[in-house]
Amino acid sequence: MLKKIHHIGIAVKDIKAAAEKYVAITGIMHYETEYVEGQDVDVAMFEVGESRIELLQGRSENSPISKFLEKNREGLHHVAYEVEDIDKALVELKAQGFTLIDETARIGAGGMKIAFIHPKSTSGVLTELSQVK
Ligand code: ZN
Asked: What spacing in Å lies between the alpha carbon of 74 and ligand 1's midpoint?
């Protein structure tokens, strides 16, 4: 069902400072930035090989990323896997007893269809499914 790791999401407090570090560590000068309204986050996406690093900074305290950073340090927020058919994957995972945060897919960064699986079902790591257009 899972094709590959699509990206790793990292929660940061200062996306510009974090992006500078990732430019230095990856050597990738060009990266995509975007505001995702549904989560009230700014996103910077670095393509590294066939996967990506997704830096996330909340714009307001209502953003899930800001709430995460109230309880946690900056760092790993989620791992995202690419799937062929996200709707089918959600039905199958629910039938297997996984706790879904999103029962139906929504639109995330890059216009991808995404959905989250609760970390209690995935050994403590928030897991995202991503269906590339
Ligand atoms: Zn993500």
From this structure: 15
| Burial of 77 from C-beta contacts in 10 A (0-12 / 13-18 / 19+) | buried
Cα(97) to ligand 1 centroid in Å equals 22
Q: Which CATH number fits domain 2-131: 3.30.70.20, 3.30.160.250, 2.60.40.3080, 3.10.180.10?
A: 3.10.180.10
Residues with CB under 5 A from ligand 1 (ion): 9, 54, 80, 128
Burial of 55 (0-12, 13-18, 19+ CB in 10 A): buried
Q: How far is CA 16 from the centre of its chain?
A: 18
Distance from residue 95's CA to the centre of ligand 1 (Å): 24
pLDDT tens-digit readout, 73-127? 999 999 999 999 999 999 999 999 999 999 999 998 888 999 999 999 999 999 9
Q: Tell me, in angstroms, the distance from the centre of ligand 1 to residue 112's CA.
A: 10
Q: How many residues does the chain have?
A: 133
**Residue 43 pLDDT > 90, yes or no?**
yes
